[in-house]
Amino acid sequence: MMEGDSMQQPHILLRPGDVSKYIILAGDPGRILRLANFLDSYEELAYNREFRTIRGSYKGVDITATSTGIGAPSAAICMEELIACGGKYFIRIGSGGAVQPYIKLGDLVISTAAVREDGTSRMYVEASYPAVADLELTKVIIDTCKELSFPYHSGLTRSHDSFYIDNEKEIVDYWNKKNILSSDMETAIVFTLAQLRAVKAASILNTVVEFDDDVKSGIEGYVNKEASTIEGEKREIMLALESIFRLEKISLKG
Ligand SMILES: O=P(O)(O)O[C@H]1O[C@H](CO)[C@@H](O)[C@H]1O
Ligand SMILES: O=c1cc[nH]c(=O)[nH]1
C-alpha cells in the first residue's frame, strides 16, 4: 500500500472506497465519456490532469472507468492510485497499430502478453520479468468476444515510449517477424504492475493504424472518425463491459 492511503490520491483525486473492484482504463479522457453512453447510469467522480474517472452501473454491475493519458509513466501513476483506492480487476481499452498485415482497421487485439519497450516498467523491475495478462480474465474476454462475434486476434503486443520517431518502420518490421500483433504504449506497464501488485489485468486494443500505414495518418483517420475505427472503439467498450458482467456472474456463482 502507498503511504497516505486513507487520504485523497494526489493525481486521480480519489479516496479508498471511491472506486469499484472492476476498472476500465483508456488513454483518452474522451473515450471515458463515450463509454459512459453504454452505462445505465453514471457520475463523474474526478477529472484532474489526464485522469478522468466515472463510476456507474452496467446491467447492475458497479463499474469504474479512468483515463490514464498517453504513455507508461502516467498509466503507472494512475494504476497505483486506483489500486490504493480498491481497484482489483483492470481492463485496458486502447487504440493500437497493427504489426501484422492481416489485422484490419477496427479489428480487436486481445493481448496475452507484451514486450516491455517502455522505460517505466524497467524502473520497477528488471527487463526479464514478464508482462503477462491475467489468464482467467483474458479467457473471459476471449469467450465473450466470440459470443459477440467481433473480429479479434489474440497474441503479443509491443508497448513503447516513442510515437514520432525516424525509424518507426524498421522497428515495426522487426517486431512483425517476431509474431507481434500490435503496438501501443501502456499494455506492458499495466500487465507488469498488475503482476507486481497482485491484481488482475487484461488489454483490448482497437486497431487504428494498419501495418503498411504510417502512424500519423492512421491516428488522423481515427480522430476524424474513420468508420471502422469508431466501430472498433464501440466494440472494445462493449466487450469490456460484457466481460465484466460475465465475470461478476461467475464470481456470484462461487
Ligand atoms: O488510445 P490510447 O488508449 O491512448 O492508446 C494509444 O493511443 C495513444 C497514442 O495515440 C497511446 O496512449 C497509445 O497507447
Ligand atoms: O501505431 C500505433 C497506433 C496507436 N498507438 C500506438 O502506440 N501505435
Description:
The protein contains eight helices and ten strands. The protein has 254 residues and is an alpha/beta fold. It has one domain: Rossmann fold. Helix 4 packs across helix 8. The structure holds 1-O-phosphono-alpha-D-ribofuranose and uracil (URA). 1-O-phosphono-alpha-D-ribofuranose binds next to strand 5. It catalyses: uridine + phosphate = alpha-D-ribose 1-phosphate + uracil. It is an enzyme of class 2 (transferase). This is Uridine phosphorylase. Its EC number is 2.4.2.3.
Brief overview:
This protein has 254 residues and is an alpha/beta fold. The chain is built from eight helices and ten strands.
Strand-helix topology:
Layout: E1 22-26, H1 29-36, E2 41-48, E3 51-58, E4 61-67, H2 72-84, E5 89-98, E6 108-117, H3 120-124, E7 131-132, H4 135-148, E8 152-160, H5 168-176, E9 180-184, H6 187-197, E10 200-209, H7 215-223, H8 227-253
Parallel strand pairs: 1-4, 1-5, 5-10, 6-8, 8-9
Antiparallel strand pairs: 2-3, 3-4, 5-9, 6-7, 6-10
Helix pairs in contact: 2-6, 4-8
The structure holds 1-O-phosphono-alpha-D-ribofuranose and uracil.
Which geometry do the CA atoms define? globular
Bound molecules: 1-O-phosphono-alpha-D-ribofuranose, uracil
Question: In terms of per-residue confidence, which ranges show pLDDT below 50 for 5 or more consecutive residues?
Answer: none
Rounded mean pLDDT is 96
Please state the CA-atom Rg, rounded to the nearest Å: 17 Å
- CATH fold descriptor: Rossmann fold
Termini, distance in Å?
Answer: 28 Å
Secondary structure category: alpha/beta
Fraction of residues in helices?
Answer: 25-40%
Helix/strand order, N-terminal first: EHEEEHEEHEHEHEHEHH
CATH 4th-level superfamily:
Nucleoside phosphorylase domain
Supply the CATH class.
Alpha Beta
Residue share in β-strands: 25-35%
Number of DSSP helical runs: 8
Q: How many domains? A: 1
List how many beta strands DSSP finds. 10
Major β-sheet profile: 5 strands, mixed, barrel
Strand order of the largest sheet: 5-9-8-6-10
